[in-house]
UniProtKB/TrEMBL annotation:
<dbReference type="InterPro" id="IPR036868">
    <property type="entry name" value="TusA-like_sf"/>
</dbReference>
<keyword id="KW-0808">Transferase</keyword>
<dbReference type="InterPro" id="IPR001455">
    <property type="entry name" value="TusA-like"/>
</dbReference>
<comment type="similarity">
    <text>Belongs to the sulfur carrier protein TusA family.</text>
</comment>
<dbReference type="Pfam" id="PF01206">
    <property type="entry name" value="TusA"/>
</dbReference>
<protein>
    <submittedName>
        <fullName>Sulfurtransferase TusA family protein</fullName>
    </submittedName>
</protein>
<feature type="domain" description="UPF0033">
    <location>
        <begin position="33"/>
        <end position="57"/>
    </location>
</feature>
<dbReference type="GO" id="GO:0016740">
    <property type="term" value="F:transferase activity"/>
</dbReference>
Amino acid sequence: MGFLRRTRKAVPAPAPVPAPAPDPEWPPAYLVLDALGRKCPIPIIMVAERIREVPVGEVIAVKADDVAARTDIPAWCRMKSQDFVREEPLLHGWAFHIRRNY
């Protein structure tokens, strides 16, 4: 009486997903603040408390998922004479990039 032998086919490992290449058009953020899950006005308070850690001319990025941040952060930049560089969509929320002017 013989045994039925089953063989397994080798399944190749999935190819590693390459990290996205940095976009030369946009400079990398000097400091990234994670305000995901925080409601207004916490993202703005976090920026106001930490922007002095960023050298003048460098970029600070704030990750937030509160829809109010989409208007609050650009408005804060105008009030404080900082440059609102861009809004980057994330899987959950956005990253708001601010260039420190002074």
